[in-house]
Amino acid sequence: MAKSKSTTTKKTVKAKPAVKAKAEKATKVTQKNKTTTTKKMEKMPSVAYFSMEFAIDQILKIYSGGLGFLSGSHMRSAHDLNQNIVGVGMLWSNGYYDQVRKEDRSMGVLFQKKVYSFLEDTGVKVPVYIYGFKVMVTAFLLKPEIFGTVPIYLLTTDVPENDALAHTTDDNLYANNLEARIAQQIVLGEGGAKILEALGKKPDIYHMNEGHALPMAFHLYSQYKNLDEVKKRLVFTTHTPEKAGNEVNDITFLSKIGFFNSLSVDEVRQITKIEGNEFDHTLAALRMAKIANSVSQIHKDVSNHMWGDKAAICPIIGITNAQNKKYWADPILEKALEKDDNDLLIKRKKELKKELFKIVADQTGNIFDPDVLTLVWSRRFAEYKRAGLIKRDAERFKALITRTDMPVQIIWAGKPYPFDMGATYLFNDLVYSTEQYKNCAVLTGYELGLSAYLKKGSDIWLNTPRITREASGTSGMTASMNGSINLSIADGWFPEFAKDGINGFILPAVDHKLPIEEQDTFDNKNLLDILENIVIPMYYKQPAKWIKIMKKAMTDIYPQFDADRMAQEYVDKMYNYQMK
To answer: Considering just the CA atoms, what is the radius of gyration of the chain in Å?
Structure first.
């Protein structure tokens, strides 16, 4: 990106009063938050945070996407704030999967055994019962000093006492087979609660990050025989309005496999007030917890609309997701912002683009130009997220990608669920339909490491889900932390942050009740209009304005979308919540 006149005439730039004041204010907010946290530590209950996945570090492959990115940042911020929390998760033997390329460059799925020497064997073993058969569960401890998190206990059934089938329970995150997936939930929920008890830990609060750990609630009920006693100890986070994220299964099947501990179906019906054969996991969680939260303010409204007419559910409040800035933000970009040093900001951004483009060249053979506007679409591949929206109008897309006056480069990356053939087809279609363009790239291996390179090396972060379908989304937060400007649908967290043309670009809202084809056509037209008429000309012809938006995005993202704020809100609004 060319420098503006103001940045070429001076090498040393003193902080402008307004920017300096803003930075000082942010520092004071941080100090105030930490002081407040210290004062509140005496009141904070002990908490066990159950999550099916944690994205802690690139080398610990026990996550798939946004749920893990969220829980990983939460555990980092809880550590930084000295909160009395332990994590409980699963030690996936083969991880989620390794995303590779086949000989024809289509996407391949590799399941490979993982070994982690830095985890400590607790030596504790407890039984759970699946179809009446005893399955032993043990735990490995991820110590705080390894990656800067609270202690996290990772569960596994890979022990000598188990038969070959039980050994496979923790093979892969989100098993494709229903029985295996429910078995995983039993291990996480009931097994995790029993592991804590065997270690002498009796948390005041059990936090379910999504409904996967629901068997833990029935384990607690088996102990207390009183729903109010369970509710006092249980809080719940619901993450998605998507059907696939709100599991429903036959209640008799769940009973036979052992999902409800030793409780009878009649007892389960009495506790959860679910009368039919279809057992709704999310609804049961909402009836067994003292309070629940959605993951953005829009999602709060959606969740209350979805569940609000159901009797006996707990309150659903909004605690917007956030990401750990200390982990994600590039320190040199932060320094440039703090000093209001445009020269350093431009220089560092170009360096980060070059680092990303080494990966692009290595994977695709295409050499990208750090001076060219670079768009990135990168997240979990799911149909509703619409990775290919930008190329829906083939002629306009070709004109966009072949222009020479003000060129663009586009990168896609993301993992589909390995058994979702539709999402895998979308990934492969992008590979083949863009292979003729030297300024397009589709990357594999979207994990923490690549995610960081993409956010730091992009100029525009594209987010194009169908409106009302994005509960939160957090990738755009970490993009803004690194000077990448969001161009997004007004859904999830984004409306709480975005000011159009000031700290990002907002696509006009479409009527979500329209047929999908009409929605996609409407959004595609607006996306290309904004790119062609606003974003591209600004990048090349108004660099000073572009830099101003970059800096405003980096400034506005903090502290509201730093996980320190989120972690403290969980204490104040969830863990310390008193039932009426």
So the answer is: 24
Return left, alpha or beta for 42; rule: phi > 0 is left, psi -120 to 50 is alpha, else beta. alpha
Rounded to whole angstroms, how far apart are CA atoms 4 and 25?
A: 28
Question: What residues form DSSP beta bridges with 99?
Answer: 109
Backbone CA torsion sign across 199, 203, 209, 213? positive
The owner of tokens 């070994």 is 115
Neighbours of 420 (CB within 10 A): 16
The single residue listed with the structure tokens 């989120």 is 566
Question: In terms of DSSP bridges, do strands 248-250 and 278-280 run parallel, antiparallel, or are they unpaired?
Answer: antiparallel
- Give residues with Cβ within 8 angstroms of 102, minimum separation 6: 108
Distance CA 155, CA 117 (A): 15
Six-digit token pair at 489?
Answer: 């649908």
**Alpha-carbon gap, residue 466 to 520, rounded angstroms:** 8
Among 106-110, 157-161, 243-247, whose mean pLDDT is lowest? 243-247
For the sheet with 440-443, list strands across it: 440-443, 408-413, 373-378, 460-463, 485-489, 505-507
pLDDT for the residue 42: 52
> What Cα–Cα distance (Å) separates residue 345 from each residue in 134, 199, 341, 410?
59, 49, 6, 22
Question: CB–CB of 450/415 below 8 Å?
Answer: no
- Asked whether the predicted pLDDT for residue 34 surpasses 60, the reply is no
Residue 396 CB contacts under 8 Å (≥ 6 apart), including other chains:
528
Check residue 141 and report its DSSP letter: E
Is cis: bond before 559, omega within 30 of 0?
A: yes
Model-wide pTM > 0.85 = yes
DSSP conformation letters of 52-63: S-----TT----
Alpha-carbon torsion 189, 190, 193, 199, what sign?
negative
Is residue 207 predicted with pLDDT exceeding 60? yes
pLDDT band at 93 (very low <50, low <70, confident <90, very high): very high
DSSP-based three-state secondary structure for 535: helix
> Class for domain 325-561, per CATH?
alpha beta
Structurally, at CATH architecture level, domain 44-323+565-575 sits in 3-Layer(aba) Sandwich (3.40)
Token readout for 400 is 């966009």
- Domain ranges for the chain: 44-323+565-575, 325-561
Query: What distance in Å separates the CA atoms of residue 337 and residue 23, rounded to the nearest whole number?
Result: 9
Q: Do domains 44-323+565-575 and 325-561 have the same CATH topology?
A: yes
Distance CA 277, CA 252 (A): 7
**Mean pLDDT of the 545-567 span:** 98
Instruction: Identify whether the C-beta of residue 138 lies closer than 8 Å to the C-beta of residue 156.
Output: yes
